[in-house]
Amino acid sequence: MKPSGSSSSTAVSVAQTILHRQNVHSHEASQHRLNQQRPQNPSSLNASDVKRKVSALKANARAAKIDIDFTIQQYLYGSSKPSKLAIPSSRVTFPTSELATSAFEQLASKARGLYNSTPPLLGLSDVALDLMFDWHTIKFCTVLNNTTVNMIEEQKYLVSATMESLYGNLKQDRMLSEKDANAKTPKITLRLFLYVPETDEDNDIQEVQQNRRVSTRKSTAPSSRQKRKRSPSASPERLRPAKRYQSSYRSRCSATAPTVDAPAPLEFECFKMKRVTCSVNDFGEPKMVYSEEEEEIMVAKGWQAHVKAGKPYQGYLGQGLMKFVFRGRYNNTDYAVLQCKRIRSRDVDNEEDLMGELEILHLSQYFLDSFYKRGDEENVRNLPKMKWNITGAFIGKLTQKLADAPNEGEEDSRSLVFSCFMVLPLLPTGSLCNEIKFSGNAEVGINNDSLGSAVDAYAHHVAVDSMYEMIISDIQGIVTPDRSIVFFDPQSHTANGDSGYWDHGKPAIAEFLESHKCNKFCKALGLDTEVPPLSLSNTNRKGPLRIGFD
Length: 550
Fold this sequence. Notes:
Layout: H1 6-33, H2 45-63, E1 65-75, E2 83-84, E3 90-95, H3 100-116, H4 126-132, E4 139-143, E5 149-151, H5 154-158, H6 163-172, H7 178-181, E6 187-195, H8 202-214, E7 268-280, E8 286-290, E9 295-300, E10 316-319, E11 323-330, E12 333-340, H9 347-377, E13 386-388, E14 394-398, E15 420-425, E16 434-437, H10 450-465, E17 470-473, E18 476-479, E19 485-488, E20 491-494, H11 505-515, H12 520-524
Parallel strand pairs: 1-6, 13-19
Antiparallel strand pairs: 1-2, 1-3, 4-5, 4-6, 7-8, 7-9, 7-14, 9-11, 10-11, 11-12, 12-15, 14-15, 16-18, 17-20, 18-19
Helix pairs in contact: 9-10
């Protein structure tokens, strides 16, 4: 017989092995992302800074605009096939802040100017041209290759969007060619489909345009100063075609322009829940607030089907080492929903980790607020705009029974895999936003650029302001075109070592203090004169976390 408790000890041993491998993997991944190039000697530092600044300025100049390359094709009335026009490809450049609706209206105006300046296309009345070049009527399609286009739906992509967000959404939905998606300067290649309306002179116009395209003899057409005589076929007495019913419905997708890979409409599943929010008082003490009101949240269906592809698509937004991120909708606003991966967590572990993360997020913002207050007190005015991604964040706890998990070996297609989840604002996206990792869980940030130096100074401030009871680690964020930062997914090390599975306690705090190198922001803020205690055992603090500010 086996000794009593042997299965329990085996399970503990397996769990410890998995946790050890996870920590090793996390350390290696963090080291890889933190692999930053630095000048080899001090004498090259200034030249390196100048080169880096020049490159950054060039990159910003490229990123501040979006190029639109477009060609034009038209459908003659009654024709099911487009005809190519003798109009060369044209380019229009818009600032990234331009409203997409305004930009596309300008594109229509530009296309009309090109159309009017092409002699073989003359002959339509101003009324017909107004109908043709109404930007709502034109079908704007992205060009994937010579034979495949995708139509840009006005309501989905253009309304309330800027050119920057339009480009990001088209790229995310795989609506751009590979060349456009990877261009240094953001670029969208379009094909504009025009629809020639029915007019009294439609047949005459079609015949004249076709004759002008194929005729090789010398033109006998009257000059622009002469009034063109009406041909017999165009006279009012000619037999006109019978009027036919025409639908006024505006198509959501072109019936004649080919489309492929159009994403299916995103479907949501409704869940009943109660919210848990977090607040931090003036003394740095977090408090969880449990609501008794039952509310609804919509969670994207089928997001797990896109996990293996490794790219955001439909409801799937991404994943980290321990969590999945997918799309949700609360109070008619889209959010990111986070849950731990089933392979590691039970329901109780998932809830504990998410509660800990929400608390750390709010403490991180608390210390960022005090960082700016320190800057005001020390008259430091050149700190970059930074914030943590916590606006409207909460923990959701289901009030209904969760669907049973599938059997081992079966795919899990449930929208939620645990009864507890975290809801956060969607991070800024688009080709003009860059994700940067400033420090790791066990790696202290040593950044050379101005933005990274400010983040390193913030990390130093947290240690000082918390009386060396806490440091924020694994700092990463999205840098937007205006050079502000939205931080997300922090970790921490505390004197008590109880903030989460990532917390390595006092040894990690001591390692930070030993490895951190004060930079210009640390010195300007007076952080370089702060002396840490010989012992980090001061866990029974009396008074506020923030010191030096009333």
